[in-house]
């Protein structure tokens, strides 16, 4: 679609979202705003009736089908949350100029860099590395030997890609991430720790997002793998030889120990963890601050430490809150047992004459 003076017509927005237009098709939209900050020049995406009713009628909105009366203005769609993500892409600013290699970048003669790639200031691209079309490397990115970065992937500043790492198409690697570093492997001999060489690799699928300061280890022998479509938050650690499936969500500060298996469509909430060699089944949810110490079957929600069925954990927490009361009742029963079954007015057992 064509831009109009740095804005979009409402009819263009409706067409882009495949929605039903209500109101003035020529209304100009300058951007997207929250319900608290929206004005007549900005569009607001809503999926809750209560928030919708609070907006004045002249504010353009994106809402579910059937919400807009003829005197309102906006676009009706089937899935407002999906429309919200698409709508933001209309107003997203270009990340960086392309088709340029900055003069301060150091690129090995044996590396292959596609002419459409952008290589930013002070990047290092080592021997045998391959940079595909439309790849963006922001400032201070290190690309090790024989690394492969597939088309459309964006690597933010200060990312380190160790030797042999393979990145799929249209990935987004945020600042400070470390991919393919050596796994934490040691054995003990004569009371000393001996390092185990990590000679495997790291393979990351298509459309994976890796958060800032996240670290993913290379394998000891085989490859650590991250499946396509998986999204990883900030400060996450994935250990050597771990296998993470497709379309998973690993929220900030999650820890995946070595050789753990995370099947497809798993959600690991913030500060959760998985023990080495444990398996989390497809479609499972691990609640925040939970620790998985044994295999979790598919489709299960677990919480607590050690992680167990979420409903069971809620019962345990509820009972834990009653421990002082239960303890007092136990003491009372013990005193009754020691006496003759009678109590004085203060609740203490009285002895028989």
Automatic annotation (TrEMBL):
It is an enzyme of class 2 (transferase). It catalyses: a UDP-3-O-[(3R)-3-hydroxyacyl]-alpha-D-glucosamine + a (3R)-hydroxyacyl-[ACP] = a UDP-2-N,3-O-bis[(3R)-3-hydroxyacyl]-alpha-D-glucosamine + holo-[ACP] + H(+). CDD domains: LbH_LpxD. Keywords: Acyltransferase, Lipid A biosynthesis, Lipid biosynthesis, Lipid metabolism, Repeat, Transferase. GO terms for cellular component: membrane. GO terms for molecular function: N-acyltransferase activity; UDP-3-O-[(3R)-3-hydroxyacyl]-glucosamine N-acyltransferase activity. PROSITE patterns: HEXAPEP_TRANSFERASES. Pathway: Bacterial outer membrane biogenesis; LPS lipid A biosynthesis. It comes from the Bacteria. Gene3D superfamilies: Hexapeptide repeat proteins, MurE/MurF, N-terminal domain. InterPro entries: Hexapep, Hexapep_transf_CS, LpxD, Trimer_LpxA-like_sf. Its EC number is 2.3.1.191. The active site is at residue 240. One of its GO terms (biological process) is lipid A biosynthetic process. Catalyzes the N-acylation of UDP-3-O-acylglucosamine using 3-hydroxyacyl-ACP as the acyl donor. Is involved in the biosynthesis of lipid A, a phosphorylated glycolipid that anchors the lipopolysaccharide to the outer membrane of the cell. Homotrimer. PANTHER family: UDP-3-O-ACYLGLUCOSAMINE N-ACYLTRANSFERASE, UDP-3-O-ACYLGLUCOSAMINE N-ACYLTRANSFERASE 1, MITOCHONDRIAL-RELATED. Belongs to the transferase hexapeptide repeat family. LpxD subfamily. This is UDP-3-O-acylglucosamine N-acyltransferase. It comes from Acetomicrobium mobile (strain ATCC BAA-54 / DSM 13181 / JCM 12221 / NGA). The gene is lpxD.
